[in-house]
Write a structure and sequence with these properties.
The complex is a heterodimer of chains A (279) and B (243).
Chain A: E1 2-11, E2 14-24, E3 29-34, H1 40-47, E4 55-60, E5 63-64, H2 70-73, E6 76-79, H3 91-101, H4 106-119, H5 135-148, E7 153-157, H6 165-180, E8 184-188, H7 192-198, E9 201-206, E10 209-214, H8 216-223, E11 226-231, E12 236-241, H9 244-253, E13 257-262, H10 265-278
Parallel strand pairs in A: 3-8, 3-9, 6-7, 7-8
Antiparallel strand pairs in A: 1-2, 1-4, 4-5, 9-10, 11-12, 11-13
Helix pairs in contact in A: 3-4, 3-5, 4-5
Chain B: H1 2-16, H2 18-39, E1 43-44, E2 47-48, H3 49-80, H4 84-89, H5 94-120, H6 131-154, H7 160-175, H8 187-194, H9 197-210, H10 217-239
Antiparallel strand pairs in B: 1-2
Helix pairs in contact in B: 1-5, 2-3, 2-5, 3-5, 3-6, 3-7, 3-9, 5-6, 5-10, 6-9, 6-10, 9-10
The chains are: A alpha/beta (279), B mainly alpha (243).
């Protein structure tokens, strides 16, 4: 279980994260959503101890997380937003380095490296240095590296950024499988479809604060399950309704072209962002 | 153990860049020896100047070798590759990471110094290099590796490390008892230069090379530098707000 208590991070006078408190249960798939600069990556940075909180605390399984708590760090793996790997090492070396940093026996490192690279379709390129890999391959390698150490908690900062659609779906399936094995996952993403599909609960962040935590379904229900996109020459406006009848009634009234569909988490996100901008 | 992991990482790097590292370690000191030692043939303290120069050049080579091996690499890993994140997040204690970096840097410095020693070996200077010389050179490398760690954490961008090198390492390379004796300099300047780590190293290595008695005070000074710089480095990895 991860508990953030009043977590605050300031960069000079700018509050990147502002008094965030939340609890992520063991085995939960939790999403952190927000616009660029909302404070998601800074939160992950504090969870991975790269950044120290200006105020507040992080507890992992009831214990205070600090840079010295190697026993707690052992439970956590992180996939950062950037490709945080030595560019001049090959895949085997990247994996071995990770295994050694986590005190894994050599035999186990080799065995699991083989399995993970095979699973992610990277095995034939294992001798390639990171510098020579495509963006998608680097992402997959970061996933392999994170999973090598059998973590209990996985922090994912936009793990599918730069991946093609097929690879992204593969990654989703993999994350689902991991979550079924009771792995606690904290995900930040710009792909709302990803959060909606994977996360049991999501937190909407804005200006460093958590505005609301709920299930994707409840967020959608709050806005209305049905959406009508009304398209005129110059723009598309979307209207939300709680019943299909209401949605169809609007569709019947309008002269513009319209499209009736289910509301998505992306709609919720966009509506909230627009409101936020108008504030 | 985490120290072994860091040494392994540095070994991978050394193995891959063996030729680059070896060549880079040779060029500048070889130029100094050729130009100042063999080109401008002169005497110093009743001996060929080359005999004076060799211990100084070897000392400065270990300094440069160690500092560059750590400062530049760690800086790139921290700011550009973000590979340092992997270490921070891992359960390897950060003090072990520090010690690993310092030892690895010392070996790289010692390797660079040993290359110069091999190159001048055919000259038959009669200079003595024994276990103590190598111990002092290793210690000198440790001091500058620790400085490299500190500088890499202080640096805010990639240009900061070469800048620091220009302001501090390069003047030390020329002033600290390497190319000339500081005994004719004004007292204040001589004393200031005298307490710098490279001055202590050059002085001890030269005394050993000449077969003269030497004072162990310099070793204590080097240990003091190492302790202070390692403490600052540890402060950074454990206490710096944003790494």
């Amino acid at each position: 279980m991860i508990v953030l208590k009043n977590l605050t991070k300031k960069f000079d006078q700018f509050k990147a994260v502002d008094a965030v408190s939340l609890t992520i249960e063991t085995g939960e798939f939790f999403g952190l959503l927000g616009l660029n600069g909302a404070g998601k990556t800074t939160t992950i940075g504090m969870l991975s101890t790269l950044l120290l909180p200006t105020q507040g605390e992080i507890f992992v399984d009831g214990e205070l997380l600090t840079r010295k708590r190697t026993d707690l760090k052992r439970k956590i793996s992180v996939i950062t937003q950037e490709y945080s790997m030595r560019q001049d090492m090959n895949m085997n070396e990247i994996m071995e380095y990770q295994g050694r940093l986590y005190y894994m026996p050599k035999k186990e490192i080799r065995k699991k490296t083989e399995e993970l690279l095979e699973f992610c379709g990277l095995i034939q390129d294992r001798k390639k240095t990171v510098r020579k890999l495509s963006g998608g391959m680097k992402r997959k390698l970061m996933v392999c590296r994170a999973l090598l150490t059998d973590p209990e908690i996985l922090l994912l900062d936009e793990p599918t950024a730069g991946m093609d659609a097929v690879s992204r779906r593969q990654m989703w399936n993999l994350l689902r499988q991991l979550n079924e094995k009771k792995l606690t996952i904290l995900l930040t993403t710009h792909y709302m479809e990803e959060a909606e599909s994977l996360c049991a609960r999501v937190a909407m962040m804005s200006h460093g604060k958590i505005e609301e935590i709920n299930t994707p379904k409840n967020f959608i229900d709050g806005l209305g399950q049905f959406a009508v996109d009304e398209t005129t020459e110059s723009k598309t406006m979307t209207h939300y309704f709680h019943t299909k009848e209401e949605a169809l009634a609007l569709a019947a009234r309008t002269d513009a072209s319209f499209h009736l569909r289910d509301t998505t988490l992306e709609d919720v996100f966009v509506e909230r962002a627009n409101k936020d901008e108008g504030r | 153990m985490g120290i072994i992991t860091i040494l392994w990482e540095k070994w991978v790097e050394f193995r891959r860049d063996f030729y680059k590292i070896t060549l880079a370690a040779m060029i500048a000191p070889l130029m100094y020896l050729l130009v100042f030692g063999l080109g401008i043939q002169t005497m110093s303290h009743g001996k060929p100047y080359l005999h004076y120069l060799i211990p100084g050049v070897i000392s400065l080579t270990t300094m440069n070798g160690s500092f560059n091996a750590i400062a530049q690499n760690l800086n790139v890993q921290r700011l550009y590759e973000k590979a340092f994140d992997q270490v921070m997040i891992s359960p390897t204690p950060l003090w072990q990471f520090m010690i690993g970096q310092i030892i690895a840097g010392s070996f790289r410095g010692l390797y660079a110094g040993a290359i110069i020693l091999l190159l001048v070996f055919p000259i038959h200077t009669g200079l003595i290099f024994n276990g103590f010389s190598f111990f002092v050179l290793f210690l000198n490398g440790a001091v500058f590796s620790a400085l490299g760690v500190v500088v890499s954490f202080l640096a805010r961008n990639h240009a900061d490390v070469p800048r620091f090198s220009n302001y501090f390492i390069m003047p030390m390379a020329f002033l600290c008892n390497t190319f000339f004796s500081t005994e004719n300099m004004p007292k204040g300047i001589r004393d200031a230069i005298g307490i710098l780590p490279l001055s202590e190293t050059s002085s001890i290595v030269r005394h050993i090379a000449y077969g003269e008695p030497w004072s162990p005070t310099g070793i204590f000074v080097l240990f003091l530098y190492l302790f202070c710089l390692a403490a600052i480095g540890l402060w950074f990895v454990y206490r710096k707000q944003n790494l």
